[in-house]
Design goal:
single chain, 456 residues, alpha/beta, Rossmann fold, 3 domains, 23 strands, 25% helix, 27% strand, stress response, zinc ion binding
């Protein structure tokens, strides 16, 4: 085994290494992010081993035993949903979030439920004392008789103790404070995070242990550490707070055992995180006196529909350059929709200031909200109130056509459950049979949708 000291410069944003310092990282474009790191390069894995930690033989795909892919249920429905139905045995899951988001609380609640079903669990803390963890468990009224805890930051020592107590679920809080003796740099550095995650993943695959790792985030809400960290783990989820800090949203950014983009919703209380069974109710606020510019749309997040309110405000420009501000979706998307509205709707807003917002802090990544955004802008501009029992969804094309969206029927059925009686949807999403209690307005072009709302 060859060992030597090497001086490299590592970008703290993307983790790319350089032999010498420069002002800008050529990989991610960030300035002044290259930090000097002393690393000791050595081969701690043999050439025949990957992160699985064992030598593999050539097999036919049909010969693979899928019964080995068992899951452990956490007892928290929203958490299991995001993970694809539970924790796969032998998988490594990275949970990121800002300080105070509730990462440690969520994991402590999850392993408490798991331990109640006679599954051995171990909580390893590198940031908090054992007394602090015990105090949190008492405050949350969690059963602590079957939860094993450990205060340690050495990966080698953790693996030794895990081999002795043999837990099925292991929590590492957090990966940024762990260190391995095989790397000389300080804990939290790029090389330490990478090597610690590699060794823990290798141990999990070899011994069929589920590892849940807590990860810190940077000021731009991306996971701290090298990009290799995201590639090593099997699943990566991010826990964020809504604008009013009352709710928490858990999103799967990567999942080898489930769908990506799945959302889980929780309410933060004095007894910890509580599941929100009906997340649409979080973002819908039926006002006693409705106002122009408010439109309800149905998003598709993961495997379920989500009703959200989109608000638009159009006002006279007070200065020479009108402002266009979008909150919850891309700014460029708003500019494109305004261009289509002027070209194919005959409504020009070049001299107006326009503000659009997705209520509740939800980030819209799909295009099904295009029609709702445009109708909200027209509603505010013309001072027309859209009925509160109406939903709108559809993608808007550059030629003014209304394109269909996925899972149209499921969106309509969910809207009916919440008491909506009218819908403006793409013609291609027309249901095959009438939906009881719902009047559906089918539109193929933007001018047809504008003609419908002009009657209100």
């Amino acid at each position: 085994m060859s060992k030597k000291s090497q001086l490299v410069f590592v970008c703290t944003d993307c983790g790319v290494e350089y032999p010498r310092w420069s002002g800008q990282c050529t990989s991610c474009g960030a300035w002044n992010t290259l930090k000097e790191v002393n690393i000791k390069t050595e081969r701690h894995r043999s050439k025949t081993e990957g992160y699985a930690g064992s030598r593999s033989e050539v097999q036919l795909l049909s010969e693979i035993n899928l019964n080995d892919c068992q899951r452990i249920f956490t007892g928290i429905g929203e958490f299991d949903r995001v993970l694809g139905g539970g924790i796969v045995v032998g998988s490594v899951i990275l949970i990121g979030g800002a300080p105070g988001a509730g990462k440690s609380t969520l994991l402590l609640q999850a392993i408490a439920h798991i331990a109640e079903h006679d599954v051995r669990v171990l909580y390893v803390s590198g940031e908090e004392s054992l007394e602090q963890i015990a105090e949190r468990a008492q405050r949350l009224n969690l059963p602590a008789e079957k939860i094993m805890i450990l205060a340690e930051t050495s990966v080698q020592r953790i693996c030794e103790l895990v081999s002795e107590v043999k837990p099925k679920v292991l929590v590492i809080d957090s990966i940024q404070v762990m260190y391995t003796e095989e790397t000389q740099s300080a804990p939290g550095s790029i090389s330490q995070v990478r090597e610690c995650a590699s060794q823990l993943t290798q141990y999990a695959k070899k011994n069929h242990v589920c590892i849940l790792m807590v990860g810190h985030v940077t000021k731009d809400h991306s996971l701290a550490g090298p990009m290799t960290l995201s590639h090593i783990v099997d699943a990566q989820v991010l826990l964020t707070a809504t604008d009013d800090a009352r709710f928490r949203v858990l999103r799967a950014d990567k999942n080898r055992f489930g769908s990506v983009g799945e959302l889980g919703f929780f309410a933060m209380s004095g007894q910890g995180l509580k599941e929100v069974k009906n997340p649409s109710a979080m973002f819908l606020n039926r006002l006693e006196h409705p106002s122009p510019g408010s439109v309800i749309t149905v998003l598709w997040e993961g495997t379920r529909p989500l009703l959200v309110e989109i608000q638009a405000l159009v006002t006279d420009c007070q200065y020479g350059n009108p402002r266009r501000l979008a909150m919850g979706f891309e700014q460029n998307r708003l500019a494109m929709l305004l261009a289509v509205l002027g070209k194919h709707g005959g409504i020009y807003t070049s001299q107006d200031e326009i503000y659009a917002n997705v209520v509740g802090g939800i980030k819209v990544s799909e295009t099904s909200s295009d029609l709702a955004i445009v109708i909200g802008i027209v509603s505010s501009l013309k001072n027309r109130i859209i009925p509160q029992d109406m939903i709108v969804f559809g993608e808007l094309g550059l030629s003014g056509e209304i394109r269909p969206v996925a899972n149209g029927l499921a969106r309509l059925n969910d809207a009916v459950k919440h008491g909506f009686t009218q819908a403006i949807i793409p013609k291609a999403n027309a249901p095959r049979s009438p939906i009881e209690g719902l009047t559906v307005h089918l539109v193929a072009r933007l001018d047809e949708a504008l003609a419908i709302i002009s009657t209100y």
